[in-house]
Amino acid sequence: MTDSLLTLNAGSSSIKVALFDAAHPGDDGALPSARWSGQADGLGAGLQARLRVHDAQGQSLLDEPLAGAQASHQGALAALLEWHAHEAASERIAAVGHRIVHGGTDFVAPVRIDGPLLDALAKLEPLAPLHQPHNLAGVRAAMKAFGGVPQVACFDTAFHAVQPEVNRRFALPRALHDAGVRRYGFHGLSYESIVAQFAGLAPALADKRVIVAHLGNGASMCGMAHGRSVATTMTFSPLDGLTMGTRCGSIDAAVVLYLLRARGLSADAVEKLLFRESGLLGLSGVSSDMRALQASAEPAAAEAIAHFAEQVVQHMGLLAGALRGVDAIVFTGGIGENDAALRERVLEDCEWLGVNVDAAANSKRSTGGALRLTTAESPVSAWVLRTDEEAVIARHTSRMLHAG
């Protein structure tokens, strides 16, 4: 019987599961490779949910629609675990690693999960209502499915804990900062995976000033130097920063006061509006999915795309300022990796930064390596790198498992 590690990564509209060997991680910094990986995406109202599983060579093992109860996060997770139990009876799960979006002030490194830890993480659910409940539901489901197996929490916020203090604070009374009202940053596991790939795929970037744009249904950007986070667009919660699928991104706090006082909305209604009814969906009135917007003839769909692209360009300038310059730009995430038109639009508008886009290179599809999007003469290079949060989770989980 083979010992394996399972990783669970529940996002706002998707769940990813992958299986890795439980071997001790090497010290060369390379990320492990999954034996198979599965994803249920399109989860949520109005989306077309689908479950896909691929082997290490990218060959399809399963591809089917999800409907009814299976189109929910809980239903999709159950379907993935059921498929694994049926197809991999000879696999012994030695540990399960979980993506946890919010670690608060206390959790800045991977940690084994127990009851008190679950309770502590549940208290952070109001800070990440689209993610944390699904993250913790995955933990509970894995505990039930694999009784007694170590469960490891890996935090999206941990990568940003090294930021300069000036970039961690809001201009609020210090007592509120000390109570946890601060800039945390998110998508840290994705950014960590990009840093881990630099050495092998684009070694010239490893010690440079790099802006990584993780663009998907949830979207953020991070300015990093020497592989460490300096500043990022998401702050106290995954609501802030860029326009997203259903999230509004940066907004004047007085708008919230206006909605509460003048429009008479409850706090729950405001939360629903900002997290679930805004962003690309709210702007377009069509969909939260960039692919659907690009296929739509509605003028509001084009306006939503333009708004998204403009926000990326503006935040590019903010992060370049935080880094005091920029040497390279990396696109990752579902939109960043696959939407060549959006990338070209952004890069052309970043010409002032020193970006000379190579349209022919940008139109190519990334096959998993580093795809350069700019000319050889471009002062600032731009790239596509495929994020691999699951591999980062597996590496942390393996290290925890072998540490005893």
Keywords, separated by commas or semicolons:
Nucleotidyltransferase, domain 5, 14 strands, about 400 residues, alpha/beta, globular, six-stranded mixed β-sheet, 2 domains, eight-stranded mixed β-sheet
Structural notes for this entry:
- A hairpin with a 5-residue loop joins strand 9 and strand 10.
- Helix 1 (73-87) runs parallel beside helix 3 (132-145) and helix 5 packs across helix 14.
- The protein has 14 helices and 14 strands.
- The mean pLDDT is 92.
- The strands form two sheets. An eight-stranded mixed beta sheet has the order 5-4-3-2-1-6-8-7, with helices on both faces. Strands 11-10-9-12-14-13 form a six-stranded mixed beta sheet, sandwiched between helices.
- The protein has helices at residues 73-87, 115-122, 132-145, 174-178, 188-201, 253-261, 267-276, 279-284, 290-295, 299-323, 333-338, 340-348, 359-362, 389-403; strands spanning 2-10, 14-21, 36-41, 50-55, 60-65, 91-100, 111-112, 151-155, 209-214, 220-225, 228-232, 328-332, 371-372, 381-384.
- The chain has two domains: 2-184, Nucleotidyltransferase, domain 5, CATH 3.30.420; 203-384, ATPase, nucleotide binding domain (Nucleotidyltransferase, domain 5).
- The protein has 404 residues and is of the alpha/beta class.
- How many structural units, i.e. domains? 2
Shape: globular
- CATH class category of the largest domain: Alpha Beta
CATH superfamily of the largest domain: ATPase, nucleotide binding domain
Strand content: 15-25%
- Average pLDDT: 92
Rg for CA atoms: 20 Å
Q: Which series of helices and strands comes N to C?
A: EEEEEHEEHHEHHEEEHHHHHEHHHEEH
Output the CATH topology of the largest domain.
Nucleotidyltransferase, domain 5
Number of helices: 14
Query: Largest beta sheet: what is the strand line-up?
Result: 5-4-3-2-1-6-8-7
Instruction: Summarize the main sheet.
Output: 8 strands, mixed
Q: First CA to last CA: what distance? A: 21 Å
The strand count comes to: 14
Contiguous low-pLDDT stretches (5 residues minimum) are none
CATH architecture of the largest domain: 2-Layer Sandwich
As a percent range, the share of helical residues equals 25-40%
Q: Structural class, please?
A: alpha/beta
